[in-house]
UniProtKB/TrEMBL annotation, chain A:
It comes from Perca flavescens (American yellow perch). The active site is at residue 419. Its EC number is 7.6.2.1. Keywords: ATP-binding, Endoplasmic reticulum, Magnesium, Membrane, Metal-binding, Nucleotide-binding, Translocase, Transmembrane, Transmembrane helix. GO terms for molecular function: ATP binding; ATP hydrolysis activity; glycosylceramide flippase activity; magnesium ion binding. This is Phospholipid-transporting ATPase. It is found in: Endoplasmic reticulum membrane; Membrane. Mg(2+) binds at residues 419, 421, 1029, 1033. The keyword Phosphoprotein does not apply. Its cofactor is Mg(2+). The chain crosses the membrane at residues 78-96, 102-120, 302-327, 347-371, 1087-1107, 1169-1192, 1198-1217, 1229-1249, 1271-1290. Pfam families: Cation_ATPase, PhoLip_ATPase_C, PhoLip_ATPase_N.
UniProtKB/TrEMBL annotation, chain B:
It comes from Perca flavescens (American yellow perch). Its main location: membrane. This is Cell cycle control protein. It is found in: Membrane. Keywords: Membrane, Transmembrane, Transmembrane helix. InterPro entries: CDC50/LEM3_fam (IPR005045). The keyword Transmembrane applies.
Length: 1496, 365
C-alpha cells in the first residue's frame, strides 16, 4: 500500500519531465497515461486531455449549420450555381422575364429535394451515432475502486476498461490482462474485415505473468505509441514502466474498436485510441465518388448546350438591336419606354435583352437532368441488388453496389483484369498430392474422392460443359459411399458444385469455421505413405523407449515424419472444438504445465536456456523477475533482453534433456483418438494452411492444440507431443514463406520448419555437398522434387515446399540477438524483422512438396468464353507461379489449346526489350497472314478475331487504327513484367499485349497489378474493370474504372475497396452483359432524350422571337415554361430510363456480341447529340409553324395561341419517347397517360383559378376555351405526326432494312422461345459475323500474299500441332538445370512451356511409368525446322515458342470428349496436309531443345 | 418463394433414409437465414409483361398507308370547308395616293373621316364578322405585354389611386395624377371607328354592327369589372385618362352606357393581346335585321374615323369581312397540311416497299 501511495507522486514528477521532453516529439507519437492518476486533478493536467474522446459523431450537420452548410455543399455543383444565378437575375427589373418568385421555384425545388435527402441521411447517421454512443461498457472508477458501467461516449483515452465475452470493443484498447491462462484474448474481426475466424491477441509482455487479477491502481506505465492511423495491421509502440524498462507493443496487443471478444471470459485493457481516432473509424471512408464515362461525355454536351444557348441569346440580342434600330427616333405606340421615361438606345436594349434571353432560354440547360440521372441510377442499383440471378443462396449474399453512380460504366467495359485465386477459383484449397523426400505419393484415392465432387457437379451441368472436368468421370463410378447419397440431395436443388453445397451444409451445422467443407477436410490418405508414417512413428516410439537418439532413424522415414510435423505446426491454425463453439481446446500435459512453468523449463535448461525471443519467450525475463520476488505486482523491472543474451553466450551445450520433456503417456488409443479428432476444428487464416493441416490429420498427425508458446501434435504411436514454439516468422508476400522455430521434443534440437512457395524455398536449399552420400541423396531429392513440382504446376496445382533446418544453440543465440533488437525497434521494425527472417531462412534442407488443388469456380470457363465473345479482353494477373497459372488459364478457357502462346521471360531490361521487339515482329507477320487468311478459311469463324475499335480518342497515332486481336496468348512473369512496365518499354509491351487475345501475368505483385491496370487504362484509353477477392487486389481494384470485389473467403478488403461486390465470378457475366448493357443503354438514351427535349422546347420560343421583335416575349405561359421539365415531361422519361429493356436478358446473355454496343458507345456518340439537336429543331419548327399558319390572319390572342403550342410540344415529346421506348410495360403507359392528364389538369385548374393573377399572361379560361375549339384537336393530331414522321421513318427503315445488332437481338426476342433457341444455337457462329458490321481491318500496308501464305502455313500448324503430353522425362529433368536460380542463364531466359491439357494429366502422371515414357525428339527434325525458320523473312527465333497443346498420342485423345477429339484430329490432319515442309510436332520439340531452361 | 418450392421438390424426389430429415432441417434453416434474398417478383426481376413495338416492314408499311389515307380524308374535308368561307379584306392605311384615306395620313389632321367604297358580287352569307386588322404591330412585345394592371382592371379602387408599377411609364401623368386604365396596352388602344352603309340607289342604309359579345364571355363577366360606383364617372375622380386617349374610359361608348369603362367590348378585345404582329380583331357582327342572312350583293361604303397612326412604324390597317365555319375563319393551310402529310405517309410506305422488296426479299430466300 505504501508503494501505491507514492505512485501518483512519482508519476506526476516523471510526467512533468516527460512532457517537457515530449513536446517536440509530439507530432510523431502519442503518449498515454492512465487516467486514474488524474481523476482528482483538474482537466488541464490530464495529459490525455487533447486526445479525442470516445463520442462519435458521423453527422455532417447540426440543426443550426444544416441550412448554410448544405447549401454550401450543393453549390459546389456548378449547375446549381448557374440556376441560382439565373433565378436571381430575374429579380433585376430591367432584364427580368418571369415573375421572380416563380423563377426561383425550380431551383428551390431541386435544392430542397437534395437537402431533404441529405437531411434524412444525416438524421439516420445521428440516430445510429446515438445508439452507439450510449452502449455500455465497464470502466474502472478510482473512487469506487471497481469497474462501473459507463456509456461508450464517456470513455476516454487512458481509461481502464473491462471486457467480457461477446462484448464489442468500444475503443482501441491495449490488452493488459486476460482471464485466459495463456494471457490471450480472442477477438472476431468480422465487422472490420469480414473474417470470421478468431484472432489471438496477447497481453502486453510485462503483464504476462500476473497470477492475480490486474489491478488498475497498480499500473504506472506510460505508453508511447504511434499517432492514430488507419492501418489495421500495424501498431507500434512501447510501454515504459516506472523502472524505466521498456517493452515493445505490437499489433498483437491491441484490441480494435468494433471487434468482438470471444472465448475469453474477461479482459482488461487501457484505451489508447478513442472515438474518431480509432483505427476502425479512420478506416471508415464514405462512399466513393466516381464519374462515369457516360457522364463525362454528357458534360461535354452540356457544355455544348451552353454554347448553343449563348449563340441563341446573342442572335436574339443582335436581332433586337436591329429591330429597335429600324424605328430610329420614331417610337411605335407599342414600344415602352423605360420606367424613367427615357429612351433606351438599341445597343443598351440589346444588352439587356441578352440577359433576359438567358433567363427565358434557361430550360435549354436541363436543370432536372442531374436529379433525374441520380434517381434513375438509384433505381438501377435497386434492380441490380434485387436480381435473383446475382444472389448466392449459399452465402445468402447478393451483389452490392458500393458506388452508386457508375452503373452505366458496366456496359462499356473493354478490359477485364482478373485475379486468379479466389476469383476464378474457389479459393477452397484441397490437398491433392505430395512428394516427400523425392518420392511421389499420388493419392489416387484422394483424386477419386475429389473427382466425385466434380461428378456431382457435372451431373447437374449440361453435357456440353467444360472439357476440363470430363476425363475424370470414369474414375468416379466405382466410388460409392454414404456420403454420396447425402450429398446428392443437397446438390440437386441448385446447380452448384458438390463442394459448395457441402460447404453450405457444413456452414449451417457449424457456422463459423471457414475452410472446413468435407471436401477440404476428408482427405483420403495414400496407403503407401500412411504405412510409412506408421512405420516411422512406431520406430520412433520404440527408440524413445530405448533412449536411442532419433538420428538413427532412416533418413527417408525421418523426412516423412518431419514433413508431417512441418505440415502440422508450420502455420497459425487455431484449434477449437465445435461442441463448445469458440472454446479453445486446451491440451496441457501434466508434466508440461502452462506458461508459468516456463520457469521450470528455464531451470532445467540452465544455465541460461534459450527461451527468450519468441513472442512468448520474453517470459524468461519475467521469470527472472519473479524469482526476484515480485509477486503478483505488475511493476516489472526485469533484466533486459540483453542480459539474457549474455547468458546465452556463455551457454553450455545441453545434456540429458530427454527426461525434462514430459514423455507423453503412451496411451494411444485409436478409438479415443477418433472421437477427439472428430471434435477438433481448425481455424486458419488462409485456406492453404487449413488444407495442409487437414492433410496431415489424415495421416494421423494431427494438430490438437496451439498456444503462443507451444504446439501440441498428436502422432500415431507417439501420442501427443508438445513442441515448444520459439518463433513464428509469419507469412508475407515478399518472402513468400513462413517459418516456425521450435524445439523438437524428441531430439531436443532447435528446428526451423519453413513452408513456402517453391521458388522461394528452392533458392534457399542448402547446396548439397556432393561428396557424401547424404549430399548425393539430398541432391537427388531436390532434383526429383523439382521435377514433381513442375508436374504439379502443370497439373494446375498450387505447390508448396516444405523444408527444415536444424540450428545449433550458438547459431540460434546469434540470430536471436539480432532478432530481439529488431523486435524492439520502433523505427523500421518491419524492415529489420524482414532481414532477420531472411537470415534465419537459409541453408534449408528440403523435405518435400505438396500439391494443393484450387478448384475453378462454377461457370468460370463459360463466363470467360462469353465475356470474350462480348469483345472484352481478359487479362489474368496472378501471384501464382507461371505453370500453375497457365494451367488454370487453360482450364478456365482463358487460353485456348488452339492458340499460340507467347511467353515472355527475361531477366534483364535489354533482354526484355529484345523479346518484345521480336514478339512485335512476329505478331505483325502473323497479322498479315491472318487477315488474308480470314476470307479463305471459313472454319475459323468460330473464333473469328474480334474487331475492337478503340475509343474515340486514342492516345497515340499508332493506336488510331483499329486492330485485330489475334488468336495469341501472352504469358509474362513478374520479373519480366517489371521490365516491361518500364517507361521505355511500356509502349511496346502494350502493342504486344493488346494484339493478344489473352494475357496472363504470373508472379505479379499487388503493385504490378495496379501498374498494369493503370498503364492499359491511361495508354489505351479504354474502360477497365478489375476483379479480385483479396487484399493483394485492392490496389488494382482502386485503379480500375470499375473495381469489383469477390466477397469470398479471403476477408473483405477487396470488397471494401470495390465499387461492386459479387459473391461469385460467374455473376460478372450477367452484371456486365445484362445489367451493364441495360444501364448504359437506358442512361444514354435518357440523356440524349433530355437534351432533345429541352432543345425542342426552347427552340419554340426562339422561333417566336422572330415574330415579337426579339423582345424576349414568350407565347408559352411562364408556368408551363418552368414546370414543363419538372412536372409535365418528367415521369415518362424516368420510367423509361429505369425500366426500358432494349433486348431481353436471355438474348443478351446468349448473344454476348451485343455488348460491343456499349463498348463502342453506340447508343450515345457525339454525333448523336447533334442529330438529336437537329431533330429537336426540326420538330420545334413543325410544332411552331403548324399553329402559326393555322392561326395566321386570325384574331387569336397570344396565350390562346401559345397554349396549343405547349400542348403540341408536350404530345410530340411524349410520342417521341414512345418511339424510343423499346418495351412498353403498364408503367410506361401509365406514366404517359399520367403526364398528359397532369398537364391538362394543371392547365385547367391554373386557368380557372384566378382571373386577375399571373401577370403578364393572365391566362384565365384559356384552356377551357381551347378545349371547345375543333381546331385545337386538329392541331393535336397533325403536329406530332408531322414532327415525328422523319424520325419514325428513319427508325422504321433502320429497323426493317438495316437493323443494328441490338435490333436483331430485339427481333429475336419477339420470336417464340423455341424458335429463338433454335436460331441462337444455329447461328451462334453466324450471328457473330453477321453482327459485326465491318470487315476485318488490315493495317499493314504491304500484304504479299505469297509470303503470307507461307508464314501462315508455318504459324497455323504450329498453333494446332499436336504434341504428346510432353511430360519431361527424368532424363530431361535431370539434365535441365534446377530452377531459375541457376547461374547458367543467357541474356534471355528462355522458357518453353508445354502446357498439357489438365485432363490428360492424371492418367499420365498418376501412373508411375514416367521414366519410361517414350520421347520423340529428333535433332535432325529440329535442325530442319530451324532452317525453315531462318528461311522465312520473319526473324523469329525460337525465343517465342509457340506452344500448342494437342496430343498426337492416341491415349490422350481417347481421354478427350469425343466431339473435341474428333475435331482436333481433323484439324490437325488438315493442317498437316496443307503443310509439307514442317512436321508440327517437331517444331515444338525444337523449341524445347533450343531452350536453355525447360521448366517442364 | 420459388426457390423454396424447388427445394421442396428436390426433397420429395430425393427421399432417402436419412436425407429427408436433413432436408427438412435444411429448409427450416434456409427460411431463417436467407434474409438477403431478393424478392422474386416480376417487377424486381424486371420481367414485367411488356409490349415490344417492332418496327418491321409488315407493320410499318400498312401503318403508314392507313395514317396517310386518314389524313388525306381529313385534309379534303378541311380544305372544302375552308373553301366555302368568304373573306373580304380592305386596306385603308392610306399609303397610296388614290386611297380614300390618303388625306388622313397627313400630320396634324384630326377627326378625319374617310369613306371606303366597295362592292360585293354575290351574297356574303351571314353571319358576317367585321374585323379591323393591323400589320407590323407588335402587341406581343414583351414590355408592352407586361404594361397593364389586372387588379385595377378588375375594378379595385385602390389601384385607381396607385396603379401597379408594371404599368410604367404610363402610371402617372406629368401632374402625378394616376392614369386609369394605366399601362401601355390600354394607352395604345385602337380608336378608329367604323360605320358601314349599303348604297342602294344612291341612298345609304346603315348596316348595324353588333358590338355585343365580341369579347370573351369571361373577360366581360369575370376578369374585367367596373368599380361598383354609380355613376361610373365618380370612380374616375382624380384620375386622368390615358395619354393617347381622346375620351375617358367611362365615355368610350356614348350610345350604350353599359358598354363603358373597363367592360367596353372594344376595350376588352384590344386588351387581349394578339399573338403575332399581323393580326385582326373583331369589331362587330352583322346579324341584325335583313343582314342576318348576310350581306346582299351590291355596293357598300365604309365610313372610317381615321385616328390611329400606324405609318410611323410601317404598320398597315385593314378591315375584314368574313363569315366563319365550324373550324373558324378561312384558313386553307390546315387542310393542305393534312393532305401533304397524308400523301407523305403514303409515299414513304411506297418507298419502303420498294426498298424492302429490293433488298430484303432476295436475302430472305
Amino acid at each position: 500500500m505504501a508503494r501505491e501511495s507514492e505512485e501518483p507522486g512519482m508519476a506526476k514528477t516523471s510526467k512533468v519531465k516527460r512532457q517537457r521532453k515530449k513536446k517536440p516529439k509530439e507530432n510523431k507519437t502519442r503518449t498515454v497515461h492512465a487516467n486514474l492518476l488524474y481523476d482528482n486533478a483538474k482537466g488541464e493536467e490530464n495529459p490525455n486531455r487533447n486526445y479525442a474522446n470516445n463520442k462519435i459523431k458521423t453527422t455532417k450537420y447540426t440543426v443550426l449549420s444544416f441550412l448554410p452548410k448544405n447549401l454550401f455543399e450543393q453549390f459546389h455543383r456548378f449547375a446549381n450555381v448557374y440556376f441560382v444565378f439565373i433565378a436571381l437575375l430575374n429579380f433585376v427589373p430591367v432584364v427580368n422575364a418571369f415573375q421572380p418568385e416563380l423563377a426561383l421555384a425550380p431551383v428551390v425545388f431541386i435544392l430542397s429535394v437534395t437537402a431533404i435527402k441529405d437531411l434524412w441521411e444525416d438524421y439516420r447517421r445521428h440516430r445510429s451515432d446515438q445508439e452507439i454512443n450510449h452502449m455500455d461498457c465497464l470502466v474502472y472508477n478510482r473512487a469506487e475502486r471497481r469497474y462501473v458501467e459507463r456509456y461508450w461516449k464517456e470513455v476516454r483515452v487512458g481509461d481502464f476498461i473491462r471486457l467480457r465475452c461477446n462484448e464489442i470493443l468500444p475503443a482501441d484498447v491495449l490488452l493488459l490482462s486476460s482471464s485466459d491462462p495463456d494471457r490471450l484474448c480472442h477477438i472476431e474481426t468480422a465487422t472490420l474485415d469480414g473474417e470470421t475466424n478468431l484472432k489471438q491477441r496477447q497481453v502486453v509482455r510485462s503483464f504476462f505473468d500476473l497470477d492475480c487479477d490486474f489491478d488498475p491502481l497498480k499500473y504506472n506505465g506510460i505508453i508511447e505509441c504511434e499517432k492514430p492511423n488507419n492501418d489495421l495491421n500495424r501498431f507500434r509502440g512501447y510501454i515504459i514502466h516506472r523502472s524505466g524498462q521498456r517493452d515493445a507493443l505490437y499489433k498483437e496487443n491491441l484490441l480494435l474498436r468494433g471487434c468482438t471478444i470471444r472465448n475469453t471470459e474477461e479482459a482488461v485493457g487501457i484505451v489508447i485510441y478513442a472515438g474518431h481516432e480509432t483505427k476502425a473509424m479512420l478506416n471508415n471512408n464514405g462512399p466513393r465518388y466516381k464519374r462515369s464515362k457516360l457522364e463525362r461525355q454528357m458534360n461535354v454536351d452540356v457544355f455544348w448546350c451552353v454554347i448553343i444557348l449563348l449563340v441563341m441569346c446573342l442572335f436574339a440580342a443582335v436581332g433586337h438591336g436591329l429591330w429597335m434600330f429600324q424605328y430610329g427616333d420614331k417610337r411605335p405606340v407599342f414600344d415602352v419606354l423605360s420606367p424613367e421615361g427615357t429612351d433606351l438606345s438599341p445597343i443598351m436594349s440589346a444588352i439587356y435583352l441578352f440577359l433576359t434571353m438567358i433567363i427565358v432560354f434557361q430550360v435549354l440547360i436541363p436543370i432536372s437532368l442531374f436529379v433525374s440521372i441520380e434517381i434513375v441510377k438509384i433505381c438501377q442499383v435497386y434492380f441490380i441488388h434485387q436480381d435473383m440471378d446475382l444472389y448466392d443462396e449459399e452465402t445468402d449474399s447478393h451483389l452490392q453496389c458500393r458506388a452508386l453512380n457508375i452503373t452505366e460504366d458496366l456496359g462499356q467495359m473493354q478490359y477485364i483484369f482478373s485475379d486468379k485465386t479466389g476469383t476464378l477459383t474457389e479459393n477452397k484449397m484441397v490437398f491433392r498430392r505430395c512428394t516427400v523426400a523425392g518420392v511421389e505419393y499420388s493419392h489416387d484415392a484422394n483424386a477419386r474422392r475429389l473427382a466425385m465432387y466434380q461428378e456431382m457437379d457435372s451431373e447437374e451441368e449440361d453435357c456440353t460443359s467444360h472439357g476440363g472436368t470430363l476425363p475424370r468421370r470414369d474414375s468416379v463410378t466405382s466410388h460409392q459411399s454414404a456420403r454420396v447419397v447425402l450429398r446428392s440431395q443437397s446438390t440437386k436443388s441448385h446447380r452448384r458444385t458438390g463442394s459448395r453445397a457441402e460447404a453450405k451444409r457444413a456452414s449451417i451445422l457449424s457456422k463459423h469455421t471457414a475452410f472446413s467443407s468435407p471436401m477440404e477436410k476428408d482427405i483420403t490418405p495414400d496407403p503407401q505413405l500412411l504405412d510409412k508414417v506408421n512405420e516411422c512413428s512406431s520406430q520412433m516410439d520404440f527408440m524413445r523407449f530405448h533412449n536411442q537418439p532419433m538420428s538413427q532413424l532412416p533418413s527417408d522415414l525421418a523426412d516423412i515424419i518431419d514433413f508431417f510435423i512441418a505440415l502440422t505446426i508450420c502455420n497459425t491454425v487455431v484449434v477449437s472444438s465445435p461442441n463448445q463453439p469458440r472454446q479453445k481446446v486446451r491440451m496441457r500435459f501434466e508434466l508440461k504445465s502452462p506458461v508459468k512453468t516456463i520457469e521450470d523449463f528455464i531451470k532445467r535448461f540452465t544455465p541460461s536456456r534459450l527461451t527468450s525471443g519468441s513472442n512468448s519467450s520474453s517470459s524468461s525475463s519475467l521469470i527472472t523477475n519473479r524469482s526476484s520476488n515480485r509477486g503478483c505486482s505488475s511493476l516489472l523491472s526485469s533484466p533486459s533482453a540483453e542480459s539474457t543474451l549474455t547468458k546465452l553466450d556463455e551457454e553450455q551445450p545441453p545434456r540429458g534433456l530427454e527426461h525434462s520433456f514430459g514423455p507423453v503417456p503412451p496411451c494411444y488409443n485409436g478409438k479415443a483418438w477418433n472421437l477427439e479428432d472428430g471434435e477438433l476444428r481448425y481455424e486458419a487464416e488462409s485456406p492453404d494452411e487449413a488444407a495442409l493441416v487437414y492433410a496431415a490429420r489424415a495421416y494421423k498427425c494431427s494438430l490438437v492444440g496451439r498456444l503462443p508458446d507451444q504446439v501440441t501434435v498428436e502422432l500415431p504411436h507417439l501420442g501427443k507431443l508438445s513442441f515448444e514454439l520459439l518463433h513464428t516468422l509469419g507469412f508475407d508476400s515478399t518472402r513468400k514463406r513462413m517459418s516456425v522455430v521450435v524445439r523438437h521434443p524428441l531430439t531436443d534440437q532447435i528446428t526451423v520448419y519453413t513452408k513456402g512457395a517453391d521458388s522461394a524455398i528452392m533458392d534457399l536449399i542448402k547446396p548439397p555437398d556432393t561428396g557424401s552420400s547424404k549430399g548425393k541423396r539430398q541432391k537427388k531429392i531436390v532434383s526429383r522434387t523439382q521435377n514433381y513440382l513442375n508436374l504439379y504446376a502443370a497439373d494446375g496445382l498450387r505447390t508448396l515446399c516444405i523444408a527444415k533446418k536444424i540450428l545449433s544453440k550458438e547459431q540460434y543465440a546469434c540470430w536471436l540477438q539480432h532478432h530481439l533488437q529488431a523486435e524492439t525497434a520502433i523505427q523500421g521494425r518491419e524492415e529489420l524483422l524482414f532481414d532477420s527472417a531472411l537470415r534465419l531462412e537459409t541453408n534449408l534442407q528440403l523435405l518435400g512438396a505438396t500439391g494443393i488443388e484450387d478448384r475453378l469456380q462454377d461457370g468460370v470457363p463459360e463466363t470467360i468464353a462469353s465475356l470474350r465473345k462480348a469483345g472484352l479482353q481478359i487479362w489474368v494477373l496472378t501471384g501464382d507461379k507461371q505453370e500453375t497459372a497457365v494451367n488454370i488459364a487453360y482450364a478456365c478457357k482463358l487460353l485456348d489449346p488452339e492458340e499460340e502462346i507467347l511467353t515472355l521471360n527475361a531477366d534483364s531490361q535489354e533482354a526484355c526489350a529484345l523479346l518484345l521487339e521480336e514478339s512485335l515482329h512476329y505478331i505483325q507477320a502473323k497479322f498479315l497472314c491472318s487477315s488474308t487468311d480470314q476470307a479463305a478459311k471459313a472454319f475459323h469463324s468460330n473464333f473469328a478475331p474480334f474487331e475492337i475499335y478503340p475509343s474515340s480518342s486514342p492516345s497515340s497515332s499508332s493506336h488510331t487504327t483499329p486492330f485485330t486481336v489475334l488468336r495469341l496468348g501472352l504469358v509474362i512473369d513478374g520479373r519480366t513484367l517489371a521490365y516491361a512496365l518500364d517507361k521505355s518499354l511500356e509502349d511496346k509491351f502494350l502493342a504486344v499485349a493488346r494484339s493478344c487475345r489473352s494475357v496472363l501475368c504470373c508472379r505479379s505483385t499487388p503493385l504490378q497489378k495496379s501498374m498494369v491496370v493503370k498503364l492499359v487504362r491511361n495508354k489505351l484509353k479504354v474502360m477497365t474493370l478489375a476483379i479480385g477477392d483479396g487484399a493483394n487486389d485492392v490496389s488494382m481494384i482502386q485503379v480500375a474504372d470499375v473495381g469489383v470485389g469477390i466477397s469470398g473467403q479471403e476477408g473483405m478488403q477487396a470488397v471494401m475497396a470495390s465499387d461492386f461486390a459479387l459473391p461469385r465470378f460467374r455473376y460478372l457475366q450477367k452484371l456486365l452483359l445484362v445489367h451493364g448493357h441495360w444501364c448504359y443503354s437506358r442512361l444514354a438514351n435518357m440523356i440524349l432524350y433530355f437534351f432533345y427535349k429541352n432543345a425542342m422546347f426552347v427552340a419554340l420560343i426562339f422561333w417566336y422571337q422572330f415574330y415579337c421583335g426579339f423582345s424576349g416575349s414568350a407565347m408559352i405561359d411562364q408556368w408551363y415554361l418552368i414546370f414543363f421539365n419538372l412536372m409535365f415531361s418528367a415521369f415518362p422519361q424516368l420510367i423509361t430510363g429505369t425500366l426500358d429493356k432494349d433486348v431481353s436478358a436471355e438474348t443478351l446473355q446468349q448473344l454476348p456480341q451485343l455488348y460491343v454496343n456499349g463498348q463502342n458507345s453506340e447508343e450515345y456518340k457525339p454525333y448523336m447529340f447533334w442529330m438529336n439537336m437537329i431533330d429537336a429543331f426540326y420538330q420545334s419548327l413543325v410544332c411552331f409553324f403548324i399553329p402559326y399558319f393555322a392561326y395566321a390572319d386570325s384574331d387569336v390572342d397570344l396565350f390562346t395561341w401559345g397554349t396549343p403550342i405547349t400542348t403540341l410540344a408536350l404530345l410530340t415529346i411524349l410520342v417521341h419517347l414512345g418511339i424510343e421506348t423499346k418495351t412498353w410495360t403498364w408503367m410506361n403507359w401509365l406514366s404517359i397517360a399520367f403526364s398528359t392528364a397532369l398537364f391538362f389538369t394543371v392547365a385547367l385548374c391554373y386557368n380557372a383559378s384566378c382571373p386577375t393573377c399571373y401577370t403578364p399572361s393572365n391566362p384565365y379560361w384559356t384552356m377551357q376555351r381551347l378545349l371547345q375549339d375543333p381546331l385545337f384537336y386538329l392541331l393535336c393530331v397533325i403536329t406530332p405526326v408531322a414532327a415525328l414522321l422523319p424520325r419514325y421513318f428513319y427508325r422504321a427503315c433502320q429497323g426493317t432494312l438495316f437493323p443494328s445488332p441490338v435490333q436483331v437481338g430485339r427481333q429475336l426476342d419477339k420470336l417464340p422461345t423455341e424458335t429463338r433457341r433454335n436460331i441462337l444455337s444455329l447461328s451462334r457462329v453466324k450471328a457473330g459475323s453477321a453482327l459485326s458490321p465491318k470487315p476485318p481491318f488490315l493495317s499493314l500496308s504491304k500484304p504479299s500474299p505469297k509470303g503470307c501464305n507461307k508464314k501462315d502455313q508455318r504459324s497455323f500448324p504450329s498453333s494446332e500441332t499436336s504434341q504428346g503430353p510432353a511430360l519431361q522425362t527424368d532424363e530431361q529433368g535431370q539434365r535441365s538445370p534446377l530452377g531459375p536460380a541457376d547461374s547458367n542463364k543467357g541474356p534471355l531466359d528462355l522458357y518453353t512451356i508445354v502446357p498439357t491439357e489438365k485432363d490428360t494429366l492424371p492418367y499420365t502422371k498418376d501412373t508411375p511409368k514416367l521414366p519410361g515414357e517414350p520421347r520423340p525428339p529428333s535433332t535432325k527434325d529440329s535442325e530442319c525446322l530451324g532452317k525453315t525458320l531462318e528461311a522465312s523473312d520473319v526473324s523469329l527465333s525460337g525465343w517465342i515458342t509457340s506452344t500448342p497443346l494437342l496430343s498426337q498420342t492416341g491415349s490422350v485423345q481417347l481421354n478427350l470428349p469425343p466431339a473435341q477429339c474428333v475435331k482436333y484430329t481433323r484439324n490437325s490432319d488438315q493442317r498437316l496436309k496443307s503443310d509439307h515442309s514442317v512436321h508440327p510436332a517437331q517444331r515444338t520439340e525444337q523449341g524445347a531443345e533450343q531452350s536453355l531452361h525447360t521448366t517442364l | 418463394m420459388l426457390a423454396n418450392a424447388a427445394n421442396n421438390e428436390t426433397c420429395s424426389t430425393n427421399i432417402g433414409n436419412s436425407s429427408s430429415r436433413l432436408c427438412n432441417q435444411k429448409m427450416v434453416k434456409e427460411e431463417q437465414e436467407l434474409a438477403n434474398r431478393p424478392d422474386n417478383t416480376a417487377f424486381t426481376q424486371q420481367r414485367l409483361p411488356a409490349w415490344q413495338p417492332m418496327l418491321s416492314a409488315g407493320i410499318v408499311i400498312p401503318g403508314f398507308v392507313l395514317i396517310g389515307l386518314a389524313f388525306i380524308g381529313i385534309g379534303v374535308a378541311l380544305f372544302v370547308t375552308s373553301r366555302s368561307i368568304q373573306v373580304l379584306e380592305l386596306d385603308y392605311t392610306g399609303l397610296e395616293q388614290n386611297s380614300p384615306c390618303f388625306k388622313c395620313t397627313y400630320p396634324n389632321v384630326s377627326n378625319c373621316v374617310c369613306d371606303l367604297d366597295f362592292s360585293i358580287d354575290s351574297l356574303f352569307k351571314g353571319t358576317v364578322f367585321f374585323y379591323y386588322g393591323l400589320s407590323n404591330y407588335f402587341q406581343n412585345f414583351r414590355k408592352y405585354g407586361v404594361s397593364k394592371d389586372d387588379v385595377q382592371l378588375s375594378g379595385d379602387l385602390t389601384n385607381f389611386k396607385s396603379p401597379s408599377d408594371t404599368c410604367s411609364p404610363y402610371v402617372y401623368d406629368r401632374n402625378n395624377q394616376p392614369i386609369v386604365p394605366c399601362g401601355s396596352i390600354a394607352n395604345s388602344m385602337f380608336n378608329d371607328t367604323f360605320q358601314l352603309f349599303q348604297k342602294i340607289n344612291g341612298t345609304k342604309t346603315l348596316v348595324p354592327f353588333d358590338g355585343k359579345g365580341i369579347a370573351w364571355w369571361t373577360d366581360y363577366n369575370i376578369k374585367y369589372r367596373n368599380p361598383s360606383v354609380t355613376p361610373l364617372k365618380n370612380a374616375f375622380n382624380s384620375t386622368v385618362k390615358p395619354i393617347f386617349w381622346s375620351k375617358p374610359a367611362y365615355e368610350l361608348d356614348t350610345s350604350d352606357p353599359a358598354n363603358n369603362g373597363f367592360i367596353n367590348q372594344n376595350f376588352l378585345v384590344w386588351m387581349r393581346r394578339a399573338a403575332l404582329p399581323n393580326f385582326r380583331k373583331l369589331y362587330g357582327r352583322i346579324d341584325e335585321g335583313v343582314y342576318a342572312q348576310g350581306l346582299p350583293a351590291g355596293s357598300y361604303s365604309l365610313a372610317i374615323t381615321y385616328n390611329y397612326p400606324v405609318l410611323s412604324f410601317g404598320g398597315r390597317k385593314k378591315v375584314v369581312f368574313s363569315n366563319v365555319s365550324w373550324m373558324g375563319g378561312k384558313n386553307e393551310f390546315l387542310g393542305i397540311a393534312y393532305l401533304v402529310i397524308g400523301s407523305l405517309c403514303v409515299l414513304m410506305s411506297i418507298v419502303m416497299l420498294i426498298v424492302y422488296a429490293k433488298f430484303k426479299f432476295p436475302e430472305e430466300d
